[in-house]
Design a protein that fits this description.
- This protein has 100 residues and is an alpha+beta fold.
- The chain has a single domain, classed as 2-Layer Sandwich (YaeB-like fold), CATH 3.30.2310.20.
- 34% of the residues lie in helices and 29% in strands.
- Strands 1-5-4-3-2 form a five-stranded mixed sheet.
- 27% of the residues are buried.
Length: 100
């Protein structure tokens, strides 16, 4: 399976990293490494994330990294990373567009 990042997911990951870097650049780098290694693991284990509770669709799942949720969709041949959000934020359903 290949991993496909939506533009929204990449933008949100960059903003989160920038926010962390304000206080600690090395922690921001660690967080990004954790993010990308956790997502890479989905290639082998796409269903390892839990079903996103607000959506309740078996193909839309999430992995939790500390205070953040990485929401992704499993489709034939690909895993689409849809968004990255703080766990306290409500999901913006517009962000769940693969092209967004």
């Amino acid at each position: 399976m290949k991993i496909v990042w939506s533009p929204t997911a990449l933008k949100r990951a960059a903003k989160i990293s920038d926010y962390i870097a304000v206080d600690n650049v090395s922690e921001a780098k660690k967080w990004l490494n954790l993010l990308f290694s956790s997502v890479k693991r989905l290639k082998k284990y796409p269903q390892s994330g839990r079903i996103t509770p607000e959506i309740n669709n078996e193909n839309i799942r999430e992995i939790v990294l500390g205070n953040y949720r990485v929401i992704y969709e499993i489709s034939k041949g690909a895993i689409h990373i849809l968004t990255v959000r703080n766990y306290k934020q409500l999901i913006d359903f517009d962000e769940l567009n693969k092209n967004g």
